[in-house]
Structures are given as C-alpha cells and as structure tokens.
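Chapter summary example.
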Amino acid sequence: METLTCPRCQQLVDKQALNCPHCRTPLKAYGHPGIPLYHAEKDEYLCDNCTYHADDTCTFPKRPYAKNCTLYENITNRQAEIHQQQQADSISTKIQQWIKRHQSLILLLGLLLFCIFLTLLR
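The structure predicted for these 122 residues follows.
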C-alpha cells in the first residue's frame, strides 16, 4: 500500500484515499482518485512557485492566491526535468543530425564494405 502524508494533519494516508480519514481534508479533486489536489503550506500560495503562473498560462480563478489546485506544477521540478531531457536528447539528437547530414557517405561506405565482403568470400 502506497502512502502519502496529509497536508493538514501530517498523518500517513493511503495514496488512493479521497479524503484524509483523520481530519477529512480532501486529497483528490472532485472525488476522483485520478485527480490529485495540491495544497499549499500554511502561509504560502501555490501560485508563487507554479509553472503556469510563471508563464502566465494559468486560468484558475483563484490565481494568484490559490491554496488548493489541481493543475499545480512546481517550477523548479519542471526546470530540472527540462534540463535533464535536454542533456539526454542532445547526444541522440547530434547523432541523428550527423546521420542525416552524411546519409550518402554512410550508404557509399556500406556498399563498399558489402563489396569487399563479397570479394573476400570468393
């Protein structure tokens, strides 16, 4: 059983629970187990470090003073993911671009190696 902590009472709760059994804080939005509901700390707002607030694409009516949100995405986590993805993609992207640029050379080298292989078999 996977657990998480309740944002209000800090008790361990089942990850699929809709409400905290101890303090009745809603943990899932609209009573649906697949929609997480993010909660801000006591004196903070979620919008202060949300990706959607930073790029001005948030349409949530409680913005910029939202304490609960279903769309919240931490901007520092998102930036770290983008940075990791760029590093991982950069090597594979460079290889793919090199292959596209030198496609004819690779084809000629392949044909040459195939001809040499056939010659050696005779």
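To summarize the output: Residues 75-101 form the longest helix (27 residues).
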